[in-house]
Amino acid sequence: MTEIDYYELLEVDRGADASTIKSAYRKLAMKYHPDKNGGCKDNEAKFKAVNEAYDCLKDPQKRAAYDRFGHAAFQNGGGGGSAHDFAGFSDIFESVFGEFMGGGRGGRAQPRRGADLRYDMEITLEEAFHGKSADITIDVTASCDSCHGTGARPGTHAHTCSTCAGHGKVRAQQGFFVVERACPMCNGSGQVIEDPCRDCRGDGRVERTKTLTVNIPAGVDEGTRVRMSGEGEAGPRGAPPGDLYIFLHVKRHAIFEREGTTLFARAPISFTTAALGGTLAIPGLDGRTHELKIPAGIQSGKQLRHRGAGMPVLQGRGHGDLVIQIDVETPTRLSTRQRELLEMFRETETGDECPEAQGFFARLRNAFAGD
Q1: What pLDDT, on the 0 to 100 scale, is given for residue 78?
Q2: Which family does the UniProt entry place this protein in (predicted)?
Q3: To the nearest whole percent, how much of the chain has pLDDT over 70?
Q4: In sequence order, which ranges of 247-287 are alpha helices (DSSP H)?
Q5: What residues form the annotated binding site for Zn(2+)?
Q6: Is it the case that residue 37 has pLDDT exceeding 80?
Q7: Does domain 110-143+202-252 have CATH number 2.60.260.20?
């Protein structure tokens, strides 16, 4: 399952302040609003995704939970505002701020979720264009097969900690304040293992190397994050696992540069082609050759656009554009015949052939006419 990072959706940095996030949201909401896109389903989906991202990041508590847990922070709810959704979020809020505020609600110790993992993958621009499936190998702590993650030797089980009565926390009175901390006997788990598993030594986890298949969708960009749910570190003693996040890095291409879904390239042409016009054939990342018409009299720096030949839209339909910047190349090696022909051409010049040059020298003369 691929989930686009909320910060990427709003096109802001993770450290962006509230005003920056709000400004980015307003810009994108206006761009993708259904009323302005003629009922386009892709833009409607993008509009909903942008609203979902802003709804999370504008709320300091939700943002704090998202920064720590990612999309997993809201897996048990969908923003509908039900009591179940609120309870799920309050559990996450407590796990973020509970220790600072002096502990939780006094219930039994909850199993700690396994840590999330990060994997950096480098891909080519062609692979970003078409998408790909790749196998990766990672070293990770996985649930112990011998004890099924319990930490206790097969045939035995853990007992409720007598010190904290299974709560995982103990309290101490200090003046007017009650300080709550993890139970020193069970290390906050609420359970005591008297006969630990020999393979995992009571932790319920073992080190393991595993191979995973990562599906990279077409249209990904530098820094796109692909989430693999439940493929992170196993939680201690049967707790839920974390997630694995694949961060993508796109190699520099020899010809094309990218900005969003637009591909840019520079193409040198001869001065005769620039003067007379012609056709430019550019091989695209899609495997096809795209022809661009060069108008007569084109100047260096002029850009030609071929619509629909750029990068695919991530999780959408259509492609961006291919933009070619023209560089007119002056010949440096001429044959005798070529030089003769150019001399003949120069003899027939009136100045009207190059109006910009003619205008420049006219302004130059006028500027110094009074000296």
Answers
A1: 41
A2: Belongs to the DnaJ family.
A3: 86
A4: 271-276
A5: 144, 147, 161, 164, 183, 186, 197, 200
A6: no
A7: yes
Q: At 281, is the secondary structure helix, strand, or coil?
A: strand
322 backbone φψ class: left, alpha, beta (φ>0; ψ -120 to 50): beta
Supply the pLDDT for residue 265.
Answer: 96
Binding residues, by number, are 144, 147, 161, 164, 183, 186, 197, 200
Name residue, tokens 């120069």.
Answer: 346
Residue 347 token pair:
């003899």
C-beta atoms surrounding 118 within 10 Å: 10
C-beta neighbour count of 144 within 10 angstroms: 24
What pLDDT, in 10s, does the model give residues 115-138? 999 999 999 999 999 999 999 999
> How far apart, in whole angstroms, are the C-alpha atoms of residue 85 and residue 90?
9
- Residue 258, pLDDT score: 94
Q: How many CB atoms lie within 10 A of CB 151?
A: 24
Question: Which CB contacts under 8 angstroms, 24+ apart, belong to 44-48?
Answer: 45/315, 45/316, 46/316
- For residues 84, 89, 90, 93, the Cα torsion angle rounded to the nearest 10 degrees is 170
Domain boundaries, the chain: 110-143+202-252, 257-367
**HSE-CB for 123 with a 13 A CA cutoff:** 31
Residue-level length of the chain: 371
Tell me whether domains 110-143+202-252 and 257-367 share a fold. Answer: yes
Task: Tell me whether strands 225-228 and 132-143 are parallel, antiparallel or unpaired.
Answer: unpaired
Higher local confidence (pLDDT), 259 or 90: 259
Confidence of residue 184 (pLDDT cuts 50, 70, 90): confident
Q: Is the separation of the CB atoms in 205 and 142 below 8 Å?
A: yes
Q: How far apart are CA 245 and CA 235, in angstroms?
A: 17
Tokens 């997993």 correspond to what residue? 72
Tokens 């879904």 belong to 261
Q: Which amino acid is it at 29?
A: A
H-only helix segments in the chain: 6-10, 18-32, 41-57, 60-69, 83-101, 125-130, 271-276, 336-347, 355-367
Which numeric CATH code is attached to 257-367? 2.60.260.20
